[in-house]
Automatic annotation (TrEMBL):
InterPro entries registered for this protein in UniProt: Isochorismatase-like_dom, Isochorismatase-like_hydrls, Isochorismatase-like_sf
Protein name: Peroxyureidoacrylate/ureidoacrylate amidohydrolase RutB
Record gene name: rutB_1
Chain spans, region Disordered: 75-94
One Pfam family matching this protein: Isochorismatase
Keywords: Hydrolase
Species of the source: Methylobacterium crusticola
Domain named Isochorismatase-like: residues: 19-206
Length: 221
């Protein structure tokens, strides 16, 4: 049965049976000191505010029986899925694949690659490992969503303007309705968070909708 969600630029009605929650890259490598985010010069404490809203939506989605999908950005230990353009750019304190306090930076299977304990996937919840910023590129996400009849995505995670935005843009072009949960997303650069959300709702919702985590939880009750 369709349920209303209060959102910008307009409220919408979603069929929960055809809706998935996708939590983008809430990994130690982005949220904790010593990981990929910090090697790039970011203040990683800025992302912590998104954890409790993500958890509230995660709990509500699980209770409502929604499909919950987690994503992780990272690379194979041999870096065969990491293009030179990504490995070489910038001047990080440690490059992707280098050893760090949470293991090799942004490498699958290392402690830093794991999702933060508060949002740890439960057995049976799909975890999409992605080498890029978008969750559709070089992953099985598209076929998974098609097989489950999903048409609407509730999206949260980090960072708003990078992996959340790239995934929403990819999803929008594939025909998914995306509802981005503003306070359950975060950026190292607060003005980019705000701009990223504004870009989604501008022009009548050019990439989708933006709602609060509270509005999502209310819809899931
Ligand atoms: C970044 C991400 N910012 N998950 N990754 O490199 O947003």
């Amino acid at each position: 049965m369709p349920v209303p969600i209060e959102a910008e630029p307009a409220s919408l009605s979603v069929d929960l049976a055809a809706t998935a929650l996708i939590i983008i890259d809430m990994q130690r490598d982005f949220l904790e000191p010593g990981g990929f985010g910090e090697t790039l010069g970011n203040d990683v404490s800025r992302l912590a505010a998104a954890v409790p809203p993500c958890r509230a939506v995660l709990d509500a989605a699980r209770a409502a029986g929604l499909l919950v999908i987690h994503t992780r950005e990272g690379h194979r230990p041999d870096l065969s899925d990491a293009p030179p353009a990504k490995l070489e750019r910038g001047a990080p304190t440690a490059r992707i694949g280098a050893p760090g306090p949470m293991g090799r930076i942004l490498i699958r299977g290392e402690p830093g690659h794991a999702i933060v304990p508060a949002l740890a996937p439960r057995p049976g919840e799909p975890v999409i490992d992605k080498p890029g910023k978008g969750a559709f590129y070089a992953t099985g996400l598209g076929p998974l969503l098609s097989a489950r009849g999903i048409t609407t995505l509730m999206v949260c995670g980090v960072t708003t303007e990078v992996c959340v935005h790239t995934t929403v843009r990819e999803a929008n072009d594939r025909g998914y309705r995306c509802v981005v949960l503003a306070d359950a997303c975060a950026s190292y650069i607060p003005e980019f968070h705000e701009a990223g959300l504004a870009m989604i709702t501008a022009q009548g919702g050019i990439f989708g909708w933006v709602a609060s985590s509270a509005a999502a939880v209310a819809a899931l009750r």
